[in-house]
Every structure is written in structure tokens, then in C-alpha cells.
Design brief:
124 residues, mainly alpha
Length: 124
């Protein structure tokens, strides 16, 4: 012990404020990092993500169903149109999840659905 007082004041010890400083502190915004900046709205971002997931799921569902119907018209193994239809069903489930706000799960289902369609295309 050197006999010196500690110079580091912990977070629980605060410097006393005068009345004028307290009034100025009340006028300033407290958490500016938590507030959205110009043009940033978290609700709008979530809405846009839901619409994007639902729209991409619907578009990939229609594309998969169209490919399945076109493949049925030609002489290909039955596994090919089944893979396209199965991938379309997975993408339809992703569209439903995306419209309900489960956009991360919808993204992974979209990826899985397209992979199933691509795998079915390999058997062609």
C-alpha cells in the first residue's frame, strides 16, 4: 500500500452535477444509437424481408412446377419431374414461412428447394 487514494472511480461513482448541467443533459437524446437514422425504419425492413421471401418463394414455386410439367411432356425418367415438383413444394413452404415473418428459415428452405430441383436436373 503506497498510501495514495485510488484514482479510478468505478462506474457506480459519478461526479456530482450542478442544476444547470442537469437541465442540459435532459435536453439531449439519451440513446441515439438505438434510434433509426434518416430513412431507416426497422419495421419497414422487416416488411420488405417478408415480401421478398414470399415473392421469391412464389416465383421459384411457379418455375419448379412449370419445369415439372415441361419435363413430363418429354420422355425423361420419372425422377426428374418428381424432383422439380418436390423442390417446388419446398419453395412453396418457404413462401408461407416468409409471409409469416420466418425469413431466415424461408431462405434456407429456398436454397434447399433449388438444390432439389438442380439435383433432379442432373438425372435428365
Amino acid at each position: 500500500m503506497s498510501g495514495r487514494a485510488e484514482s479510478d472511480a468505478g462506474p457506480e461513482v459519478a461526479a456530482p452535477e450542478t442544476a444547470g448541467e442537469q437541465d442540459e443533459a435532459d435536453d439531449l437524446p439519451q440513446d441515439t444509437a438505438d434510434r433509426p437514422q434518416d430513412g431507416e425504419d426497422p419495421l419497414e425492413d422487416a416488411r420488405r424481408a417478408r415480401w421478398t421471401a414470399a415473392g421469391a418463394g412464389a416465383a421459384l414455386t411457379l418455375a419448379g412446377l412449370a419445369a415439372a410439367v415441361l419435363r413430363l411432356a418429354h420422355s425423361v425418367p420419372a425422377l426428374v419431374p418428381a424432383a422439380y415438383a418436390g423442390g417446388a413444394a419446398v419453395c412453396a413452404a418457404a413462401a408461407v414461412l416468409g409471409s409469416r415473418g420466418r425469413t431466415r428459415r424461408a431462405l434456407w428452405l429456398l436454397i434447399a428447394g433449388v438444390m432439389v430441383m438442380a439435383l433432379g436436373d442432373q438425372f435428365d
